[in-house]
Amino acid sequence: MTQEDYLERVTQYIKDSEDELAQFKAITSYHSGQYDDDASWKSLNQYVTENEDKRGCAPGQRNRVYYMALPPSVFVPVSKGVKKNVYVQDGVNRLIVEKPFGMDTASSNELGKELGALFTENEIYRIDHYLGKEMVKNVMTMRFSNIFFSQIWDRKYIDNVQITFKETIGTEGRGGYFDDFGILRDVMQNHLLQVLSLIAMERPISTESEAIRDEKVKVLKCIPPISPDDALLGQYVAANGKPGYLDDDTLKNKKSRTPTYAALTLWIQNERWEGVPFIMKAGKALDTAKVEIRIQFRNVAGSLYKGAPRNELVMRVQPREAVYIKFNNKQPGLSYGTIQSDLDLSYHDRFTDMKIPDAYESLILDVLRNDHSNFVRDDELETAWSIFTPLLHQIDQRTDLPLHTYPYGSRGPAELDAFVRKYGYDRSNAN
Ligand code: BG6
């Protein structure tokens, strides 16, 4: 690419004013080279150094971020090239790594070892872009700054927790990539498990990044590997004029059993959560696009109002961020019946003059500020894999695990309702 091609490509979606765009272009440049060629790396280093010098950056103040938005097969060679030729000994270096971080415990540990030999843990930022989403960042604030939540946040009051990820698009055109990963590796072992750890962790001793990450690791360590009995797997088939998963031309294995849908129940074996099912549901090619956290509370003991549905706290991550509580109210008027209503904080209605940053926008800023809070630490990653690896290996190796089909554009496998009922979820106020 030429510099012009590059600028056009990276700015085509930028909606800011012409002025801001011009400023952005003035500080953005493109330098091409080969991953496996030392001379390319040296010339990159020279190019960056000259740019720093031009901006009056003295030796010792060099501050470099290397962002590996690359195929995982080149993570290691590129990190080596950077370390050998571009890394500044007397400055600051930060390496951002995109997922996938391996395919299971063993491959992730191997990758970790190789990167760890080149960069310190403090220099590495493993991105999980869900941690940059506004509502995910809000989980801690909600839990630990509101007395009415902090006091009822346990097995005594909470019946079950559901974390749902739904997409309307299938894997058309990227089936070749997706087939090696499946929905569990693509969004559950990382994005949804990160959300779960924020909901379930104990209160950190401070808001420092290591304090937060310590608590996330601790709670993840209380989760045993997911049992196949707690998994419902599905794959979409052609419907409504849309192709099935197996119809994708980019798919090598036309008999693939890779799940595009899964509902998984995780159990946290600690004093706070023993016996509370955490149900994660994720799928492609479904009826709606949404991501939400739904906390369903227990029935009111000895309730005077039989049939009044359970309370729920819902945090809608996307689209249109919102927090709402489903609660029961007297039906207005002469009746003494109950009616369920919402205490609703919809961001777009309430925070009208506030811009909610894109997840990546906020995470890249965190890197520049050297804040690791919203990045995945090495021990956290290892623990996350330990929860998923045994099930993933069974899915990859066993052909007798049921794989339910569902039509493109539907709610998912028909077996889903029975699956969630098994864990006590009361659908009477579901929407
Ligand atoms: C990515 C997955 O990490 O997250 C994609 O690889 C998925 O398959 C995407 O579509 C979802 O991200 P978002 O921000 O659109 O919810």
From TrEMBL:
Annotated catalysed reactions: D-glucose 6-phosphate + NADP(+) = 6-phospho-D-glucono-1,5-lactone + NADPH + H(+)
Domain Glucose-6-phosphate dehydrogenase C-terminal: 140-425
Record InterPro entries: G6P_DH, G6P_DH_AS, G6P_DH_C, G6P_DH_NAD-bd, NAD(P)-bd_dom_sf
Pathway(s) this gene product operates in, as recorded in its UniProt entry: Carbohydrate degradation; pentose phosphate pathway; D-ribulose 5-phosphate from D-glucose 6-phosphate (oxidative stage): step 1/3
PANTHER family, alphabetized: GLUCOSE-6-PHOSPHATE 1-DEHYDROGENASE (PTHR23429:SF0), GLUCOSE-6-PHOSPHATE 1-DEHYDROGENASE G6PD (PTHR23429)
Physiological role: Catalyzes the rate-limiting step of the oxidative pentose-phosphate pathway, which represents a route for the dissimilation of carbohydrates besides glycolysis.
Protein name: Glucose-6-phosphate 1-dehydrogenase
